[in-house]
Amino acid sequence: MKTNKTFRRFTLLSLLLGTLCAQAAVKVHTIGDSTMANYDENSTDKRGWCQMLQQFFNADEVIINNRGKSGASSKSFYLEAAYWKTVIANVNEGDYVLIQFAHNDEKNGGLDGDTLRAYTAAQGGDASSIDYRGTTASGTFKKYIRAYIEETKAKGGKPIIVTPICRKYFSGNTIRRNGMHDLGDSFSILGSSSKGSVPESDNTYDYAQALRDVAAEYEDVPVIDLTLMTRDLYLSYGDSYCTENLFCADDSTHPKKMGATLIARLFAQAMKEQGILAEHIIVGTDITFSPTTGDFGKAYAGQTLVKEFNISAFGLANQTGTFTFTVSEGFEVSVDKVNYAQSVSADYTGGNLISSVYVRTTLSSAGTTTGTLTATDGAVSRELPLVAECIDLSGGEEVSVLWPLTSNNTPIVTGPCMAVEQSWSSMVLQKYSSINSKAVWPSETGRDASYKTQRNVIEGEEWPAGEIDEVSTRYIQFGMTAPANTKIDIDKISLFVAGAGGSGMRCKIYYSTDENFSNATLIQEMSKMAGNTVYAIENIPVVNIADGQSLYLRIYPWYNGGATGKTICFSDVYIHGMASDATGIASVTTDVTTDKVYDLMGRPVENPVKGNIYIIKGKKIVIK
Hints:
This protein is an alpha+beta fold. A hairpin with an 8-residue loop joins strand 19 (397-403) and strand 20 (412-414).
């Protein structure tokens, strides 16, 4: 009897432990470049494939922590403090880490950026504009991939190598060699202006093969070969269809929502086929939402929020049909972001649906608004709960920092706040002057071409050719700081931006409360900028800073096609907010992962953001 009791106790304990383990969600951290990254639907039509990945996993059991970063190479993601260090610090035993790099490792035609810089400097040349992110496929690229694997394993994590998605480089009925991330047809040679080439059987310059080779060095590191899978996907649709439906306009690298969704589903299917988290993967006929939650976040009274939902369903019983999307009172839905109603519809063919709907709500007073989004074709249906929180800023004191930038960068500060001094990284101030005689300002400003701006240029004045995205070490920064015992709710960021002398200037604009920008919010991506045309940028963030914390605003410029002397121009950079007394709000600089963190509404918070106020152990805390 004693043995039976002991056995029963052991069995009950095992069942309890099993239940507790089942309740703990597995985390999948993803590291890589812009083809994986998250994008704000209001700033660009780009979508990273990892941005669409969560819908293919049971969100109660698997959490996707997408840390893909635009412009990242295996080297820059590893070395720059904002990225790998902040990921690996949060990798726990049993977590997965997906590793996909190559796109930006190919900078400098396959040469290592640091080696090229050193060589150029030794020859007496200007190395300032040489892109350090580049690695060699057979050398430094493998070194950093091994480092990610070893450090993940050391934390008890499970690394998975993911070869990069193809570029849409069609050549007849195949994808060109460089589209598959093999530079063997044309690569740079150190000290020579001519290009080299090797036979297709030579993998020296093949970054995708380098990833496969590194994975083969380990017995427990699987490979998901998205390079081959996306090649076959693109070829199955053809160049024209891919160009129109899978990729962003004039872009052969970055997918939009349909392309990203199809790639994410391919990846999930491959995971399931390899038996990795297979029981948690949803790739059947279920309707899936991306994002998987209907949380609109916080907004200020009077603000209208619009959120995009990507809705997918594959292998439907009917080959053709119509889906109806309905929202409850307090919300409206649209399929074109123009015409809103309580219910709208979209047709599908081929037994598959990939559609976007836009849900909006206008918040009138402090409190929480809840509702439901329903998708159905009559045979299958699914609901998604909706929630939005309204914040009332009445009773606060206005604060602002304005940089007019007509003759100097001295800010005008209003109210209890402080300006963060403007700074440059790999950029320099050229001068204060008009853009040129052809400059066109928005009509509402009443300004003509003679109006002066701050003109900024890359160090060395030579913009590198071949750049299609931001460089994380090249930016111009502004910001606002909250004084001691003061909390500031930021409710407006705006500026004017223009490219002088040509139509190749591009930029991304972010804000963050992290000094190293490890968690940044994209305000605007300027993927096209007509030369000498001034663009008005305005954003209503819902973020607060308190007790010495700062909000940083960064502009990351690059030039399409390369050029000399082209400048990016700014005017009227403006940050506005409402200040209130923060006495009684403590601050913490330690790791908060060991304590339960709640927002001010008492809801659990998985990933607290530095600078925001939370409740920890019953106290209001601002996290530094």
